[in-house]
Amino acid sequence: MLFANRWRLLVGFLLPLLGLFACSPGSGPAHEAPLHPALASPFQGEFQVSNVNDHEYPFQFKDSNGYLLSWWGERLPGVDGHQGYDFPMPEGTPLLAVYDGEVTFAGWENPFYCPPLGTTVSGLVVVLRHHLPNGEVFLSIYAHLSEVRVKAGDQVRTGQVLGLSGNTGCSTGPHLHFEMRRRKGTEWPVFDPYGWSSEGEDPWSKHPSGVSSVWLWMEGKAPPLFSEVSLPPNPKPTDRAPLAITRVRYMGVSDATNPNNEFVEITADPRFASTPVSLKGFLLKNKLGEAFAFPDIALEPGASIRVYSGQGSPTGETLFWGRTQPAWDNWGDCAQLVYPSGAPYLLGYRSGCASVQGLGVLLKEEAGVLQDAHNLPLP
Ligand SMILES: [Zn+2]
């Protein structure tokens, strides 16, 4: 009887809701079939991301709150109000259709003034229109290409090469600018194919001009999102360090709660390490002075080992700091491999090593900040 009562309660609760949906005017989402993951990656392999889709207010040159609000709710540095994702990559990387569709534009966008370059420019752009199985219409946009291999009116299939990546238009470095739009009446608001997974409602979906975002990547097809700085060991002719920091991955999705989405890579440079190098007595420090002490293991010449920030079981190629919080500041940090002698080998980003001085500073590296803008030819 208890069950029957509950069932009656449930039906009594649901029926008015169904009636509400049936009577609601317009073409709200209540009438639409759900969206299912359908997209493939716009490129092969992995490239870091330098600007994410700003969920707080995706209007470039109008937003000025000083950060990008990522789909997992973290405030990140980058081009304020950025629409879509910037993936720095070598010029000439093949760019692929994320879904079956029609080419609505392929060629040079109309020239416009580019603030970061201080001049008027035009870039090569491809725009695809996609009809998803639920009846909704989306655009996918690929910008700053060096070469276009499709033309307006072409039908393309998922994975088809649309052109090659480049650095045309308003761009301060070779990269793919990838963004999507979701049709809303006669408008094409910015849509994030990674969806929104943070607490509370997506600010962009609440905006009068906004639209809600949904995870649309097929399983295993979403481009991974991370930011890192990497260099070969001892890049300067005067450097002679047997052990060097060769990579700092400082931003990964939700690294505030998944600190193993970031790591530091240490490499034994075979030019200066002819025998296995003992890690005993070495420390890894961040700009706050927090330190990880290496265990008593040895690294073969030419070999690398990664120190993940979170917890885990060490292997021959991975160590774990054991933290529950990230170690590396997305807004700038200075990774320091401190030798038993006290001399640090540095790899910094975003001026993170600016305050570190003195003898033993073997390297200072500051990553450039990528900027871009567009004059997109939407249908
Ligand atoms: Zn961009």
TrEMBL record:
Give yes or no: UniProt keyword Metal-binding: no
Q: Which residues form the signal peptide?
A: 1-32
* Pfam families (UniProt xref): LTD, Peptidase_M23
Which UniProt keyword terms apply here?
Plasmid, Signal
Q: Which PROSITE patterns does this UniProt record tie to the protein?
A: LTD (PS51841), PROKAR_LIPOPROTEIN (PS51257)
User: What is an example of a GO molecular function annotated in this UniProt entry?
Assistant: metalloendopeptidase activity
Q: Where in this chain does the record put each LTD domain?
A: 227-373
UniProt name for this protein: Metalloendopeptidase-like membrane protein
